Fold these 3 entries.
Entry 1:
Amino acid sequence: MYLHIGGEIEISVKRIISIVDVQILDQSLYDGETIKNYTIEKISNDSQKSAVIAYSEGSRQHFTLYLSPISTASLKKRLGNKLTCLKGSFVS
């Protein structure tokens, strides 16, 4: 199953570690102090409402932080009962 997180970006649910409201992200995450080996991908120029943290394709050593214009509540609805596939927490 794939989750559409905005723009033309779809992510395999198996790659998703966590989906959080961008307002609760610690500034150190953006500074690279909390998570090493990650890339930030801004999906659109619209305001960022959620952050989808996922393993980068083909690697469990590198992460991608997708900044999405879609709220955590909307992403949760899109997943429906597939939340059990998530390996991390889902904060709405």
Entry 2:
Amino acid sequence: MLTLLLLLPLFGQGQIGTRTGGSATVVISQVYGGGGNTNAPYKNDFIELHNLSANTISLAGYTVQYASAGGTSWATTPLTGSIAPGGYYLVQEAAGTGAAAALPAPEASGSLSLSGTAGKVALVSSTTALSGACPSGGSLVDFVGFGSTANCYEGAGPTPAPSNTTSVIRKSEGCLDTDNNSTDFSAGVPAPRNSATTAVSCQPTITGLAPTSGPVDTEITISGSNLGGITSVTIGGVTASGLVTTATNVKAIVPSGLAQGSAAVELSDGVTTYPAGDFMVTLAGISTPQLGSSTVCPGGSFSVTFQASGSYAATNSFSVELSDASGVFATTPPVIATLLNNNMTTSQTVTATMPAATPGGLNYKVRVVASNPVVQSLASAALAVSGVAIAPTTAQNLLTNENGATLTATEITPLTGGDSGCTPLPAEDPTRR
């Protein structure tokens, strides 16, 4: 569907209206109105078309039509022949008076005199002239309002303004069509293309799917090219939510309620469906990790026990991640223990090592993260990190009284659970101030 906005003067401000038309397989890919003007690179104005589809499209009975930026009357140029898949079709229009290069051989010619800075161009599947400032109807195939003063256009606004030395060119070699003239086009050096120009396919090409397994509510990314026109993603036949589309990737969220097992991922542009591979829906989960100690020293070790459930790939690894002293996990938190290539779903215990430079704190936490599928546990209970070390750790003689008696300080057996070599800060005694 094409959506066009009509701006009507209302005490110097624009009043917006809308109209809908048909979905385009052939689009206007370039408009140039500076032909033969001062410094113009080409003698003639031109309109260029591009076939987005995978089929040859007959243009018999079609016209390209032009109106001024605020005009209501339309002039036409009839088209003949056809346009190949991914192919271009050049329509030569009126010549200016200045000396400039001729256009490449056009597929059609007319006498429309386009403005060099602003106007409206339409591709119409009829020979009947349009009417009105912002026309509508099923015969309207594509529409471009170019330049800042155009009062009708697709989407949020007209294209950037062209000039004698620039045309407005549809991005991605003529493939980008989000029904928004302001973002689908840019101004650039005129580059007229005709049927002899190498075809550029606009069909979506899918090169990757990641991740390929995980529980429901997992976000997946489909990568490729020409994906800007994708309007929906289904997984296991169910429409996915969270759709975010760019020219090179599509993101979506695996729908809740899918059964465990393989589910086909398919993309659609509203006309054609494109398979993107299979996603293995798992019922994976990781229990809240249990800690072998509630206090640990910098550089000390402690045990972490957890239970994984569901299905994991043979290359899956479990990582134990550490929060900051307030219990908040960074975007890329420190990994303090790893079980490599582990797809076991029995109870697992791993020895974690607190980084030696960890500041003291009372609210550190850990969590366990699986790599394939990507699943993470809830955070553990609070873990205190002591910042006071006992030093020296060898026997020392201390002179303690007037009689010359001595006491000997000797290193004791390290405490279990990771308290070796340090002791927690004692609580302050409020009576001793």
Entry 3:
Amino acid sequence: MHRHDADEETFLVLEGELRLQVDGESHLAGAGAAALLPRGLPHAFVVTSPQARYLTLHTPAGFERFALADGTPASSGDITPPGEPPPTRKRSRRRPDPAASTPWGRPSPPDDGTTVAPSVSAAA
């Protein structure tokens, strides 16, 4: 779990399914779903299908500074071939921009309160 203090995060699910946990509530988002996560709310996501493709948008701009400072650019040899599992993700221990993201904890396991909808919004 984490939260963004300076930006909204939007998930656009292209393939597969994600479970989004937003401010204590769980939502399933399948292909075609959009989820708006307002700034300041603790949230997390996990892929619940064998694989998924999704886009995340952060508005306003600025989150890319965190990704560039903390990430490693992929080379052509780093791309996972189709059908193979993705590599294990390294955990970041640094936060170059404190406004980018605040760690909050791990996502909770699914519970009976999970909702399924074509679009998810935690906005009030």
